Amino acid sequence: MPAPDPSARPFVDRPVGPPELVAALLERAVEHWRLPRPRHLRTGMNAIYTAEDVVVRIGHTSADPALALALADVLTAAGVRVAEPRRPDVVTEGGLSATAWERLRSDGTDPDWRTVGRMVATVHAIEVNTLPAGLPLPTCSSFPWWNFDPLLAAVGDLLDDRARHGIEAVVDANRWWVDEPEPRVLCHGDVHPHNVVSTAAGPVLIDWDLLSVGPPAWDHSMLLRLDRWSWPPTWYAAFADGYGRSYAADPLAEAIAELRLVAASLMRLVAAQADPDAMSEAQHRLAYWRGDPAAPTWTPV
Hints:
Blueprint: H1 19-33, E1 39-43, E2 47-51, E3 54-59, H2 66-78, E4 91-93, E5 96-102, H3 113-125, H4 148-154, H5 161-173, E6 185-187, E7 196-199, E8 202-205, E9 212-214, H6 218-221, H7 234-243, H8 251-274, H9 279-289
Antiparallel strand pairs: 1-2, 2-3, 3-5, 4-5, 6-9, 7-8
Helix pairs in contact: 3-7, 4-8, 5-9, 8-9
């Protein structure tokens, strides 16, 4: 049984930072690894670039960045399909690190969710003593964006009364879940459709930055609200079939699923404080909390 560290931070839990620092590290990494000219793919918590068949991933880590490479080896050995490291070392500069990975080519089809469910069940069975020494192992409930009271205070001026009431009602009704005596397992931490790549060889589960310990329901919870994000809810039935159990209507899973929606809404409001373009999506999400029967579905960002 994994033993979580209450003081541990997720492997990546803060944005990548100033573009000029990212550019400097990217230049060093490309030269060091003798890669072709890279192209920017996207920037979120990490900056992602492609260089032909290699993906360069740049970000801040809370522990030795080489642990990501070691974790990939452990997961692969366990039978979980993940992106493979393409270089055995890490390039660092200014507190940032760069790693090189297999570039996954999507085949354009929907993921095989039964296979994804089987892979997540495998993750949940992994013993902590097989993980690389030094890998952070926080509890999923310790993620900063799950500390709802400070988040609500931080975005208070952007919330109307109806939306605030709807959010606070869900938070208050579900505070119990943290103390629920549910078995704790190793969790991927962020299972959702954008973290699954469908390839000709089958689905690949990516982005292990939120590896954590929590109840098995944690890795089911987002998939219980697929319709809120315009994804087919039938995907969860296939996932649950592969996993070996459905958590649909499970009280703990339902509580976490609703609180994930709260976290997603509040974090979009936080983003809107710095980027006015984020406000449109934030308002879509607030319509749900106002109880608007015509509330639009949400767009992942």
